Amino acid sequence: MPKKSKKVEAQRQLFETEARPHLDMLYSMALRLTRAPVDAEDLVQDTLVRAYRFYDRFEAGTNFKAWLLKIQMNTFVNRYRRAAREKQVFDGPMATPVGEGVMSRASMRGLTDPVGNAERRLIAQEISRAFDELSDDARAMVMLADVEELSYKEIAEIVGCPIGTVMSRLHRARQQLQGSLQKHAVQLGIIEADDKVEDPIPLEAFRARKEARS
Amino acid sequence: MSCRLVRRHLGAFVDGELDPASQIEFERHLDACPGCQENLAFERSLRQLTRESIGPVQAPEHLWGRTLHRLDEIDATRAERTSIEARPMRWRQTWPIAAAAAAVLIVGGVTRLPASTDYQGAGMLQDVVNLHSQALPSDVQAEAPQDVVRYFQGKTPFPVKPARFAEPDMVFVGARYIKVGAHPAAALYYMHGGRRVTLLVFQSPEIMRNAHRIHVGGRELYYHDVGGSVVTIRQQGGVNYAFFGDLDRPVLFEIAANALVAD
Fold it and tell me: Domain segments of chain B: what residues?
């Protein structure tokens, strides 16, 4: 094998130093996206290989973490999401409408004021389960915003959409998470079922419709 | 400001993503509204709980090493490309590094051979032979045969296993996913006494067209002469197993006939 040139070696050194600290972050993200350790490892490796290939296109001084995440998101979408179908269900006209509050006060208290450690663990487990039921998009949004605590601007750059879209997607993702969490928690008896959290139709609309009919 | 509006944008408020004017208005409303305060408290603790339950995990220890190994391969290719001799990469030179890897290595890209409609027969055979001389690096290494099986699951419509050979000289080195025309295929790499042998596993009835037929050791074999080399084909369970490489014709026939390709 021919000897590595000095330039290649320096580049490699730099890449390793920069990328290594993000390995756990990439893996956590990949694991939550793919939901399988084997796939997560492949995804992270593909991401880093791709990042290394295009390392010369990375603008020094800009956000390396966001750049890596962007590559990982793209790789994930290309490889694991065959069609954009899922996104349509999530974002498009078929998306379920979400109100501004999914839970009753009692449910909110039940979930966030756990009685003891055991219950706290149980709730954590249920959050994880509820999370896994979310769509790919929703999982990515919650990870980027709530776990990685990135700004909307960074998220917009990573997933490639306007900031306003980040806001609505994230809102919807969190609502879905809450809804799914509530369902699980009720099944487990952690909280009581809410009779009716919200009117399915706003009162004004209901009245208007009634008037029109009569 | 209505409670409805505040609650609708509570997430953005907690994220600190509202414009400064709205941020102040929200704060003012929240100070005076116990209901919204409760929602805010919930939003915050749920955020905390979410972070705890789906928060960062540690990557497996081997992952970084596995990745570095792939980077080594990229470096090697780059060094080749920039070297004065500028010759095509020879598999013989690269496989020992590849074989040294302890883990499974998977490459994102897929090598595609042409997929045009008139692509068949001779063209396909030539591509198959070229595939051998190109000596593309493995996606999966030999150390874990189970990983090879798993690697091809979902990629090929048929199960792929490294073939087993009676000859002790045949050593499995690695495998790679490729496409022959529109057909997904697995290229399995072997070494036989210092010479390379490629076994291509795929489903393509076209490749049997105009093939010669012989019997070796009671086994029916097909073969094509392509340029100076021979491609030997076994058919089993609707799957084609094409053997080719740097071996003499009788040796290759013998190996192809005695291979345990599927069980």
Answer: 3-54, 105-258
State the fold for domain B105-258.
Answer: Phosphorylase Kinase; domain 1 (3.30.200)
Shortest Cα distance, chain B CAs vs residue A153, angstroms? 9
Q: Do B15 and A46 touch (CB under 8 A)?
A: no
Q: Are B125 and A29 in contact (CB under 8 A)?
A: no
A32 and chain B: CB distance < 8 Å anywhere? yes
Task: Report yes or no: A156 at the B interface, CB cutoff 8 Å.
Answer: no
Placement of tokens 């197993």 in the chain = B241
Architecture of domain A105-197: Orthogonal Bundle (1.10)
| Residue labelled with tokens 């339950």 | B53
* Contact partners, residue A90, CB within 8 Å, separation at least 6: A135, A137, A138, A169, A172
Helix (H, G, I), strand (E, B) or coil at A147: helix
3-state SS, one letter per residue, for A176-207: HHHHHHHHHHHHCCCCCCCCCCCCCCCHHHHH
> Which has the closest alpha carbon to A34: A181, A143, A118?
A143
Strands B239-245 and B229-236, by their bridges, are: antiparallel
Which token pair is B229? 């080399």
Task: Give dist(CA A48, CA A41) in Å, integer.
Answer: 11
The helix or strand, by DSSP H or E, that contains position B189, with its residue range, turns out to be: strand B183-192
Distance of CA B6 to the CA centre of its chain: 49
ipTM of the complex: 0.76
For A50, nearest residue in chain B (alpha carbons): B108
What integer is the mean pLDDT of B221-229? Answer: 81
A66 close contact with B: CB closer than 8 A: no
Report chain A's C-alpha Rg in angstroms: 22
Residues B140-152: tens digit of each pLDDT: 776 666 778 888 8
The domain limits of chain A are 6-82, 105-197
Give the nearest partner residue to B53 out of A16, A79, A128, using CB atoms: A128
Which tens digit of pLDDT belongs to each residue from B132-182? 777 777 777 766 667 788 888 888 888 888 888 877 778 888 888 887 777
B70: chain A residues, CB-CB within 8 Å: 45, 48-49
* Closest in B54, B105, B150 to A147, CB measured: B54
- The answer for B 110-169 residues in CB contact with A (under 8 A) is 150
Contact check, Cβ <8 Å, B97/A31:
no
Selected from 3.40.50.2300, 3.40.30.10, 3.40.50.300, 1.10.1740.10, the CATH number assigned to the domain covering A6-82 reads: 1.10.1740.10
**Strand partners for B219:** B216
Residue position matching structure tokens 């290939």 = A53
Is B54's Cβ below 8 Å from some Cβ in A?
A: yes
Tell whether B15 is within 8 A of chain A (Cβ). Answer: yes
